[in-house]
Inverse folding.
């Protein structure tokens, strides 16, 4: 390759801080513990928080526990919501007697007009009534404070709802002068039919500065970090059924991972890269998903710029806090609640201060015993969600001046789009790649 | 109750401290000052209240106090019944009766001034439409029966006969306190229902006796024979001498079960001294009653109060709770008004403190005695207690009496009620069994056996609570539905599609011994168990259906559960016979010697898989139609001698295929045909009304009615054939079946004659199978629509050849149809040509309870594939894969569990059984969790030494999971799967057995190594390579597997991912069932399909994670 030595772009530097400890599972084991403990931990922490907010919210009202309710008396109660859903798929359906005549169509959403909400604390539950709390918005697992009173039918008539709201944020450094970009992408799906190897190669070339004119290379030099938010390979699970694999199948299984390793190798040589596991990756299923094993990446693993991370994943770049998932939390909310856009779901999780309220109820999760790692204690500056259908972003301002950029990262294999976030001003734009292959 | 208050309830000091104010309870009665210690009070109690002689005593101090308190009781409580309207005494009394019984007492002096001494009195308990409880005493009705008047006996001989009979009665009833045993003997003109008779009537003697029990002894005397002056020794055939007194009364007064009764103004008397706790109590003469037919306004239901309850007992480890030793710790109660959706009373009584539950009144007590007494107060006003409780804890402050009309629950008759009564006896609470509506009457428990041809012999306990109707859901469901299991869990899974949380009784004691929170946990569970029966009752419309059945057949509602089918037919027969002036002979209980007769025909099945539509021609209510068409009845049957003697013209008689002779309608219309006609027209009317009806409650009543009418019509035939029944007549039943057989044969012949290529049809029709009342025809056409047209044509054509109302109907087509053998088939059922309705199977192992789930799944899935997908190779493939999974030990263990009820202790089984042996072995391991008699024992068959007997190879599934014990796939293959599968596959697949059970898929077998076997104690665990199992000293892989890391890791991690998914789904489902997110799942319901899977997921998860952790280098 000839080098035009007009100008040599130097990649910008940044300070990276890894914050995933809370999502890692080391000592914790399956010892027969159940899911009640994670709910308990969640309720305990959230209740302390909501109790501290209650006096400013409704100063005149007493705060009760579910079991302390008295009929007709206005009060505030705090508890975990449970949504009773008629259409919610149930593992027991596998055992039902009759096979329905029409084949089961899997709806993408399990909402039904009859769905209703129940509030529960460690000692009791009460059914919720009134129109202040819409069953379409809330899901099982959210902790809220409610103002209302018990009716003679034993229901709690809700007048008003208090959510925890945006958590406090670390101060954003004001002295940022330069444009620096973090590139977010997801859904490479290497090995699937829709994946186009050339497209990804173009992206890699762009990031590493092997593409385009000087201006573009200049832009590429401003990329300080790359995050791959899940579903990097399409992993033929069918092949794995407990049988020993034929050597032919061994290679089909390994091929996509090998390809990914080669590409990561190229990126890691130039810029630091984080890879998060997703639903289809060779990782465990339950959240938090643990880092993809380094043995899968013999080529890239030796680089100190390569990091295999958990999902959810949190880090600081130049003191700008990033938090994100590979998308399972939002996809699950989409199945069990309603919103106009995916960003609404993302915003809700932030206001609920919980990354994945539906875990463990409908979203697989590790049965933690003494903590709930999904609680959002500190508000991030950038909150991203991978593997969504289309790109979208929104800037959310909190009551205490918090500023958060919410981003839906589309699937790269379908859209050819990656997202670049400028950490100077939290602005973001897309990097779009398309190819036309002629045969 | 006492929501915000403390958890432990202390007795207030025995002074005049006012009771703590509880919201929702009406705190208005002041506690009387303390009298003395508990025991002293109790003695007073016993003396004052429990003397049965007081029942008819004079006004005494007690009742004055009672009245006083009664007046002070607030009626404004949400629990109490609505108050009586002030004008009630000036109106007619109208109420719906629910229970009718009879007692023996002094006759009423005002109403019956002429009589004296003991007399039977009918009591009717019911509810007015305002919801007031009613007890109506009916006087003046006397028991009687008939005998045929001996020839030569005239009116003058009667007084002589009367005296003789009276003398004999006096000898055999020495203890009775009646002035006269035989009240009257009258000569009446009646006719026997048996046999066709030309003369209109004969002389009968109507013998009226003093008390109902005397009917039987009088019958005995007359049966054995009596020396009568001038006539010599004679024995008599008695008529209608085995009719229950209450039924006799209902028949004569035209009262049917659950109908509305009116007593006009001025015709009733109210006594100053009441005998019951009902709001309205009055006396009247039986002749003044007006019985309303269930029409219009009177077809509705009064607002009955339904109490649903459940108790929990703290059993000792390893024993099923016994009332002699184990305390009752909780009782949950829900009271619902009939016709309303939600219970208006929800409470739970607990022993020791219990944390509050939202929407439920939690009442905690320090002693078991108070718990039981608190429950008793639900039934009655807390009058009797006032004395006793006032110095301990004022119960009367807490609870209002609910006074339920109907008591429901699950297995309450056999367990809960007897347990409570027996427990109270053990604790010496003498006043506890006063639960009935009649003052001072105690509830007694006695063993009863119920035998019926339909249901076999059932042992149960009978607890009579006077004036309240008990409805045990388990009995009703047992009667009306065929299920594989009748545990509350599987019943609710079946009807409500919900799994019920099940807490093992060994855990119950632990929860009780915990704190207020654990007891609350138990209380929630107990409440759920109390609520399920109510929901089942609503879902299955039992109240509507049973009241309608009682109205249609005319028996009291309580008969429907406690007695068989025949009493219902008898009641109708009596009513009809009475109209015709006929009397029923008392059948001699001749046992089974009358022999049997030929049953229904089943046409030879031409087995096979039919891929052309099969039309089904059904006879609509075949047996009732036959009886109507041929006028078959007791009173139309001609005896063989009469056939010769009477010279009946051939056009007036029918000779049935079984050789009996019956007269035709023109000479004498049969009673049975008339009953049937009425039932079937009433059903048609009910069905028509049902279509019109808009109101859901009205619809429920009508649907219940049409169902009741259908069942009743079908049971008439059975009544005539019941050899140990009330009035068997095999001539009728054998004629009915013989006609049935003839009709099936005739239909077959007509179809095969008419639908031929010679007759202008495309194909020759072929009858492939015929059952009792249906015939399956293959018309040979390939499409459903043409088959339907032909079916309709055939039905119409053939119906024309039968006497009305016998009618052949075409309803459905099977396509495709798999006919396995007699009474076993499967097919897709079509009632319209566009889309099939469902898959219909009969006699195929899909529900048998001694099969494991695997069999059921295999059979169902194979049938789905064969019939719906029309994919025989696919079905075979599926079977092969499942068998291979079984051999490779990849099957979910819960699919292999076999469950059997443990009916007696292990040693008592004569033949060793798998589950009995296992129960013994489990007892040796841990007596606390071992199954007890009455439990269902789940087990799997494990691999054992060669030659071990099947019963030695049974093992507890949990033990198997914990110790990696290998199951025996061959047992399942040979003893469970093979037969049902081959039955299905043989018609559709060549060499089915070889193909399915011995193919190449059966070659590889995998068996786990047990972790507890003897040899394993000598084994040393060593690290091995994840890839090839070669022993290694450290690391994960051996040298030769290095390089395959990625592949092996992927395998490993995807296994973990699968397990995690399953783990999450299973455990959150259990959280859902238990209805709480913040509490651990305790359920150990072995009936639940996911119980073992959940256990296994937990265990597998731990192992898999450990394995995965080896990769963390």
């Amino acid at each position: 390759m000839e080098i035009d030595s007009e100008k040599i772009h130097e990649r910008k530097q940044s300070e990276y801080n890894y914050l995933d400890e809370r999502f890692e599972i080391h000592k914790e084991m399956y010892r027969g513990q159940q899911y009640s403990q994670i709910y308990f931990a969640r309720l305990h922490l959230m209740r302390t928080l909501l109790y501290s907010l209650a006096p400013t919210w409704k100063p005149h009202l007493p705060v009760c526990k579910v079991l302390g309710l008295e009929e007709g008396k206005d009060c505030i109660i705090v508890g975990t919501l449970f949504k009773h859903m008629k259409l919610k798929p149930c593992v027991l359906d596998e055992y039902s007697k009759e096979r329905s005549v029409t084949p089961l169509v899997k709806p993408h959403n399990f909402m039904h007009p009859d769905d209703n909400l129940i509030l529960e604390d460690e000692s009791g539950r009460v059914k919720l009534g009134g129109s202040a709390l819409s069953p379409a918005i809330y899901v099982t697992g959210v902790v809220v404070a409610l103002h209302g009173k018990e009716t003679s039918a034993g229901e709690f008539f809700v007048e008003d709802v208090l959510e925890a709201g945006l958590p406090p944020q670390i101060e954003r450094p004001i002295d940022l002068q330069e444009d620096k970009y973090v590139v977010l992408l997801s859904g490479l799906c290497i090995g699937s039919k829709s994946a186009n190897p050339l497209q990804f190669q173009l992206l890699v070339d762009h990031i590493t500065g092997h593409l385009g004119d000087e201006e573009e290379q200049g832009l590429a030099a401003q990329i300080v970090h790359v995050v791959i938010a899940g579903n990097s390979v399409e992993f033929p699970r069918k092949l794995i059924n407990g049988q020993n694999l034929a050597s032919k199948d061994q290679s089909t299984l390994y091929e996509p991972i090998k390809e990914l390793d080669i590409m990561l190798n190229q990126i890691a040589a130039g810029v630091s890269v984080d890879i998060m596991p997703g639903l289809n990756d060779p990782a465990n299923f339950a959240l938090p998903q643990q880092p993809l094993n380094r043995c899968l990446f013999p080529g890239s693993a030796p680089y100190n710029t390569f990091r295999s991370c958990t999902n959810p994943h949190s880090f600081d770049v130049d003191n700008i806090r990033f938090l994100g998932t590979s998308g399972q939390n939002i996809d699950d909310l989409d199945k069990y609640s309603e919103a106009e856009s995916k960003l609404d779901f993302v915003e809700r999780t932030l206001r609920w201060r919980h990354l994945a309220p539906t875990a463990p109820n409908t979203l697989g999760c590790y049965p933690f015993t003494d903590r709930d790692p999904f609680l959002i204690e500190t508000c991030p500056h950038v909150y991203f969600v991978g593997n969504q259908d289309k790109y979208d972003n929104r800037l959310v301002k909190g009551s205490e001046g918090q500023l958060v950029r919410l981003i839906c990262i589309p699937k790269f294999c379908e859209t050819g789009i990656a997202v670049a976030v400028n950490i100077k001003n939290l602005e973001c734009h897309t990097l779009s790649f398309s190819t036309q292959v002629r045969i | 109750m006492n929501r915000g208050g403390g958890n432990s309830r202390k007795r207030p000091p025995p002074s005049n401290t006012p009771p703590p104010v509880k919201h929702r309870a009406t705190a208005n009665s002041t506690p009387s000052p303390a009298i003395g210690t508990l025991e002293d009070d109790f003695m007073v109690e016993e003396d004052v209240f429990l003397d049965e002689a007081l029942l008819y005593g004079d006004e005494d101090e007690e009742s004055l106090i009672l009245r006083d308190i009664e007046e002070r009781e607030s009626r404004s409580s949400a629990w109490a019944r609505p108050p009586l309207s002030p004008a009630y005494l000036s109106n007619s009394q109208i109420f719906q009766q629910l229970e009718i019984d009879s007692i023996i007492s002094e006759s009423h002096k005002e109403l019956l001034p002429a009589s004296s001494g003991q007399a039977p009195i009918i009591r009717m308990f019911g509810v007015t439409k305002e919801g007031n409880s009613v007890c109506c005493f009916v006087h003046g009705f006397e028991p009687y029966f008939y005998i045929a008047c001996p020839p030569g006996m005239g009116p003058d001989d009667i007084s002589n006969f009367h005296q003789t009979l009276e003398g004999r009665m006096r000898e055999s009833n020495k203890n009775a306190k009646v002035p006269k045993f035989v009240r009257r003997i009258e000569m009446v003109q009646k006719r026997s229902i048996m046999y066709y008779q030309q003369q209109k009537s004969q002389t009968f003697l109507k013998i009226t006796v003093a008390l109902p029990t005397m009917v039987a002894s009088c019958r005995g005397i007359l049966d054995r024979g009596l020396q009568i002056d001038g006539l010599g020794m004679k024995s008599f055939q008695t008529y209608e001498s085995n009719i229950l007194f209450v039924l006799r009364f209902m028949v004569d007064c035209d009262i049917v079960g659950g109908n509305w009764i009116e007593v006009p103004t001025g015709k009733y008397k109210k006594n100053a001294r009441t005998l019951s706790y009902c709001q309205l109590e009055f006396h009247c003469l039986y002749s003044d009653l007006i019985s309303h037919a269930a029409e219009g306004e009177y077809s509705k239901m009064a607002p009955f109060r339904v109490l649903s309850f459940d108790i929990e007992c703290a059993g000792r480890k390893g024993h099923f709770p016994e009332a002699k030793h184990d305390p009752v710790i909780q009782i949950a109660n829900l009271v619902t008004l009939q016709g309303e959706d939600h219970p208006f009373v929800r409470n739970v009584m607990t022993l020791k403190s219990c944390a509050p539950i939202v929407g439920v009144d939690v009442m905690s007590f320090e002693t078991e005695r108070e718990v039981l007494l608190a429950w008793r107060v639900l039934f009655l006003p807390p009058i009797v207690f006032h004395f006793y409780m006032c110095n301990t804890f004022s119960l009367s402050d807490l609870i209002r009496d609910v006074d339920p009309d109907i008591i429901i629950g699950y297995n309450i008759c056999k367990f809960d009620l007897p347990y409570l009564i027996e427990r109270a006896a053990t604790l010496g609470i003498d006043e506890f069994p006063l639960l009935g509506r009649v003052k001072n009457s105690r509830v007694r428990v006695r063993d009863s056996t119920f035998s019926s041809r339909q249901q076999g012999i059932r042992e149960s306990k009978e607890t009579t609570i006077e004036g309240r109707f008990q409805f045990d859901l388990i009995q009703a469901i047992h009667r009306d539905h065929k299920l594989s299991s009748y545990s509350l869990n599987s019943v609710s899974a079946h009807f409500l599609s919900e799994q019920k949380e099940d807490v093992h009784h060994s855990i119950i004691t632990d929860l009780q011994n915990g704190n207020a929170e654990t007891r609350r946990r138990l209380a929630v569970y107990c409440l759920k168990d109390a609520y399920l029966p109510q929901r089942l009752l609503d879902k299955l419309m039992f109240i509507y259906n049973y009241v309608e059945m009682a109205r249609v057949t005319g028996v009291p509602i309580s008969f429907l559960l406690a007695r068989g089918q025949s009493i219902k037919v008898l009641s109708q027969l009596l009513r009809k016979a009475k109209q015709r002036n006929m009397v029923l002979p008392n059948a001699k209980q001749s046992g089974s010697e009358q022999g049997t007769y030929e049953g229904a025909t089943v046409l030879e099945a031409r087995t096979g898989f039919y891929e052309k539509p099969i039309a089904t021609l059904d006879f609509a209510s075949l047996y009732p139609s036959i009886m109507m068409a041929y006028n078959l009845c007791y009173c139309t049957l001609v005896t063989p001698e009469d056939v010769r003697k009477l010279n009946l013209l051939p056009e007036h008689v029918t000779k049935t295929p079984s050789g009996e002779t019956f007269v035709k309608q023109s000479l004498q219309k049969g009673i049975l045909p008339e009953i049937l006609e009425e039932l079937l027209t009433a059903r048609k009317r009910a069905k028509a009304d049902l279509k019109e009806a808009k109101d859901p409650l009205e619809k429920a009543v009508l649907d219940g009615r049409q169902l009741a009418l259908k069942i009743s019509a079908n049971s008439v035939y059975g009544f005539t054939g019941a050899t140990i029944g009330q009035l068997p007549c095999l001539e009728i039943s054998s004629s009915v079946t013989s006609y049935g057989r003839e009709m099936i044969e005739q239909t077959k012949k007509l179809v095969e004659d008419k639908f031929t290529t010679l007759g202008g049809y495309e194909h020759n029709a072929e009858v492939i199978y015929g059952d009792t009342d249906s015939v399956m025809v293959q018309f040979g056409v390939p499409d459903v629509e043409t088959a339907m047209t032909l079916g309709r044509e055939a039905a119409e054509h053939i119906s024309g050849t039968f006497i009305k109302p016998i009618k052949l109907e075409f309803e459905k087509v099977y396509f495709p149809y798999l006919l396995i053998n007699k009474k076993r088939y499967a097919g897709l059922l079509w009632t319209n040509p566009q889309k099939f309705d469902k898959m219909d199977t009969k006699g195929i192992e899909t529900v048998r309870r001694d099969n494991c789930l695997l069999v059921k799944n295999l059979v169902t899935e194979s049938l789905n594939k064969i019939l719906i997908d029309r994919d025989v190779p696919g079905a075979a493939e599926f079977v092969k894969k499942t068998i291979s999974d079984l051999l490779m030990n990849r099957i979910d263990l819960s699919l292999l569990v076999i469950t059997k009820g443990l009916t007696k202790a292990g040693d008592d089984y004569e033949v060793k059984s798998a589950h009995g042996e296992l129960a013994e072995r489990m007892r040796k391991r841990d007596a606390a969790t071992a199954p007890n008699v009455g439990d269902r024992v789940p087990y799997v068959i494990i691999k054992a030494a060669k030659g071990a007997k099947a019963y030695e190879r049974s093992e507890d599934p949990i033990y198997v999971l914990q110790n990696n014990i290998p199951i025996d796939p061959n047992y399942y293959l040979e003893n469970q799967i093979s037969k049902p599968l081959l039955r299905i596959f043989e018609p559709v697949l060549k060499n089915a057995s070889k193909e399915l059970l011995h193919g190449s898929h059966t070659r590889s077998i995998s068996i786990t190594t047990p972790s507890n076997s003897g040899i394993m104690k000598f084994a040393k665990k060593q690290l091995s390579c994840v890839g090839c199992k070669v022993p290694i000293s450290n690391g994960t892989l051996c040298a030769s597997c290095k390089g395959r890391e990625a592949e092996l890791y992927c395998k490993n991690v995807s296994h973990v991912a699968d397990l995690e998914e399953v783990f999450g789904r299973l455990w959150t489902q259990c959280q859902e069932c238990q209805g709480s997110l913040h509490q651990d799942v305790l359920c150990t319901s072995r009936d639940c399909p996911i119980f073992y899977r959940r256990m296994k997921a937990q265990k597998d998860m731990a192992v898999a994670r450990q394995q995965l952790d080896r990769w963390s280098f």
Q: What stands out?
A: The mean pLDDT of chain A is 85. Chain A touches chain B through 67 residues (CB under 8 Å). Chain A has two domains: 16-27+169-432, 58-91+107-162. Helices of chain A lie at 36-57, 197-207, 214-221, 247-270, 328-336, 342-351, 412-415.
